């Protein structure tokens, strides 16, 4: 595939989103590993629910969850700030309060909130980095969970405590629980970026290893055909 022709604003996005996230400190999918599942999980019989996770550049986080069975949509966006500042150029300056995040719509009958958390902490990003992912520095790249219900907040808090107590990671988890806040979808050119630009250097280096790790570590949850924002709209 040819390198995509990017408009100037997307070139800026590519530069500021260039993060050596890796998986547990490396970009190799082979060195990622399965962390324990949550002891506490939801008992949700609804047909649809939402989860909002932030973990660095949203291209890779969106790409991971688009390949998860039971996820019906995953949208890149901004959360934590005001509506008028939910614009890429403003968020990228780090003063808006927003984090780059992904809003995940899922079927709780197929995958639980706890299972989504396990994938989030295992392969979607490095939860031990505070206000950054690799060299991408700033609160807009923070590791944060935005629970959409008291039950989600309880499950996420218990899981973070469980993982820290078990010393699963070499450092304490930096992921913040920030409560239910309005989510604003990112610009169209950010949506489905991983799938639409698989040869883009940033995607090849940082994000395709996450997809490979998802497939290797969570084979039952992995699906080869991603659910795309463009297909859902």
Keywords:
233 residues; alpha+beta; Peptide Methionine Sulfoxide Reductase, Chain A; six-stranded mixed sheet; two-stranded antiparallel ribbon; 8 helices; 32% helix
Can you describe this structure in just a few lines?
With 233 residues, the protein is an alpha+beta fold.
How is this structure best described in words?
- Helix 2 (58-66) crosses helix 4 and helix 2 packs parallel to helix 7 (201-217).
- It is globular and about 40 Å long.
- Strand 4 (132-133) and strand 5 (136-137) form a beta hairpin.
- The protein has a single domain (8-232), classed as Peptide methionine sulphoxide reductase MsrA (Peptide Methionine Sulfoxide Reductase, Chain A), CATH 3.30.1060.
- The protein is of the alpha+beta class and 233 residues long.
- Strands 7-6-1-3-2-8 form a six-stranded mixed sheet, covered by helices on one side. A two-stranded antiparallel sheet has the order 4-5.
- The protein is built from eight helices and eight strands.
- Helix content is 32%, strand content 15%.
- Pfam families: PMSR (PF01625).
- Its EC number is 1.8.4.11.
- InterPro entries: Met_Sox_Rdtase_MsrA_dom, Met_Sox_Rdtase_MsrA_sf.
- Residues 50-200 form the Peptide methionine sulphoxide reductase MsrA domain.
Number of H/I helices: 8
Named at the architecture level, the CATH assignment is 2-Layer Sandwich
Low confidence ranges:
1-30
pLDDT average, as an integer? 87
Helix content: 25-40%
SSE pattern, N- to C-terminal: HEHEHEHEEEHEEHHH
- CATH homologous superfamily - what is it? Peptide methionine sulphoxide reductase MsrA
Strand percentage lies at 15-25%
Number of DSSP strand runs: 8
């Amino acid at each position: 595939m040819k390198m995509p022709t990017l408009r100037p604003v997307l070139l800026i996005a590519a530069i500021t989103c260039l993060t050596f996230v890796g998986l547990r400190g490396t970009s190799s999918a082979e060195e990622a590993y399965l962390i324990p599942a949550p002891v506490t999980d939801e008992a949700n019989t609804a047909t649809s629910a939402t989860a909002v996770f932030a973990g660095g550049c949203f291209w890779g986080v969106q790409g991971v969850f688009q390949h998860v069975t039971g996820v019906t949509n995953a949208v890149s966006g901004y959360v934590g700030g005001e509506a008028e500042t939910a614009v890429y150029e403003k968020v990228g300056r780090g003063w808006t309060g927003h984090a780059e995040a992904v809003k995940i719509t899922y079927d709780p009958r197929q995958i639980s909130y706890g299972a989504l958390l396990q994938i989030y902490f295992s392969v979607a990003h490095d939860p031990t980095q505070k206000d950054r992912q690799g060299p991408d520095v700033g609160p807009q790249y923070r590791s944060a969970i935005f629970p959409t219900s008291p039950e989600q907040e309880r499950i996420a808090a218990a899981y973070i405590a469980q993982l820290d107590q078990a010393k699963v990671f070499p450092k304490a988890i930096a992921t913040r629980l920030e409560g239910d806040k309005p989510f604003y979808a990112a610009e169209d050119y950010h949506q489905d970026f991983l799938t639409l630009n698989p040869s883009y250097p940033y995607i090849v280096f940082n994000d395709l290893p996450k997809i490979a790790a998802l497939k290797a570590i969570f084979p039952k949850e992995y699906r080869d055909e991603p659910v795309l924002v463009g297909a859902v709209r």
